[in-house]
Amino acid sequence: MTDAKILVVDDNDMVRSVAQQMLVALGYEAAVVESGERALEEFSESDFDLILLDLDMPEMSGAQVYNALRERVPDLKIVFMTGHSVREVQGMDYVAYLSKPFTLAAIRETIEGALAA
Fold it and tell me: Which end of the chain is more exposed for a tag (fewer CB within 10 A), N or C?
């Protein structure tokens, strides 16, 4: 499903840039935002098939964004991205977990699996 629209939410410029380039190279439409607040705004303005969501962000954490998005769209497909332990996402209903830094192969496999879920 290469026509999927994906929103990348990460406070790190390099991660956003690399993720967007990889997603576009894989044939996906990718939008990027730098904060949880911007993610909620962007999500309100456009439909996304999947969210790549950083857990560790200032001001509004990935967990807070997750909760706000789940209230709006309970079955939204969310992939968490973090350089930390998977322990941080225990108890949350997410389709996949992507460890940073990630490779093109890892992002392809994770996105394909998440969209098929």
Answer: C
